[in-house]
Specification:
CATH architecture of the largest domain: 3-Layer(aba) Sandwich
Mean pLDDT: 84
Number of strands: 11
Structural class: alpha+beta
Distance between the termini: 55 Å
Helix content: 25-40%
Low-confidence stretches: 247-260
Oligomer: single chain
CATH class of the largest domain: Alpha Beta
Largest sheet: 6 strands, mixed
Strand content: 15-25%
């Protein structure tokens, strides 16, 4: 079964001159959980990547499936699982590139300068504004790829975002734009959520693109207008594992009844 990174890589390779597909690959790489090979077992929240010297430079190796890592090496190898964005943050500035899924169809070597670009793109920040919305409109003129990127981001925000609506907006200072309204997001999560949408816009390839992210509570006076005019997104419900049901005395195989 192909992974999201496989699919993005295949699309990029099929049309190498399509910059939008390249940006989508980088976005999938940043979002993916990757298995990074280590020199030794991680200790106390620190990990030292295993770096390979090649004719093309120095590379750390990552795989988007644990099975792929196991197939690539012929002996047990320590590794750590973390997101692509976190790995980029660790390696940037070290003159180390990234070998991705070596030995698989989506194999790729990412040079240090490309990793630096990725890290800078991931540094996209949202900008606060004090302008007040006076009218909401149906969203218009946004590329379908950007809508899909928003949908992908929100699909990973179960339990954080209760609902989301994308709408055109006109502000009291005369400015027009688009707003992503996010409902019932905990205060502690808001900065990270806003940065996720800033990244989506950064990877969209839209020149001078802007998106306002607003955090609203249920009952906000603007919510009715947003529901009527905006584009709503489906956010999967958070499914928590069921608590184990207590066993009747003597029924737990790991705790047999004591004989008296």
């Amino acid at each position: 079964m192909q992974t999201p990174l496989d699919l993005a890589h295949s699309a990029m390779e099929a049309d190498p001159d399509n910059g939008a597909l390249s940006l989508k690959y980088y976005e999938r790489l940043a979002d993916a959980e990757l298995f990074l090979m280590l020199e030794e077992e991680a200790r106390d929240d620190s990990a030292r990547p295993l770096v390979f010297e090649t004719a093309e430079g120095r590379f750390a190796l990552v795989f988007d499936r644990e099975e792929r890592l196991a197939e690539f090496v012929d002996s047990p190898t320590p590794f750590v699982a973390m997101s692509g964005r976190r790995i980029a943050k660790i390696l940037v500035g070290e003159d180390i590139g990234l070998g991705i899924n070596l030995g698989s169809p989506s194999s790729m070597l990412l040079a240090p300068h490309a990793l630096e670009w990725l890290h800078s793109a991931l540094g996209a920040k949202s900008v606060e504004t004090e302008a007040r919305p006076v009218e909401f409109l149906p969203p218009a003129g946004l590329p379908e790829a950007l809508i899909e990127a928003f949908d992908t981001k929100l699909a990973n925000m179960s339990g954080v975002v209760a609902a989301a609506y994308l709408a055109g907006v006109r502000y009291d200072d005369g400015r027009n734009g688009h707003m992503m309204a996010l409902i019932d997001v905990p205060e502690a999560a808001r900065e990270g959520v806003a940065e996720a949408f800033a990244e989506a816009l950064q990877f969209s390839g839209i020149e001078a693109g802007e998106l306002d992210v607003a955090f609203l509570e249920l009952g906000d006076p603007h919510l009715d207008a947003l529901v009527k005019t905006g584009l709503g997104f489906e956010i999967p419900a958070l499914i928590l594992p069921k608590a184990p049901e207590p066993l009747a005395p003597g029924m737990d195989p790991d705790s047999p009844p004591k004989l008296r």
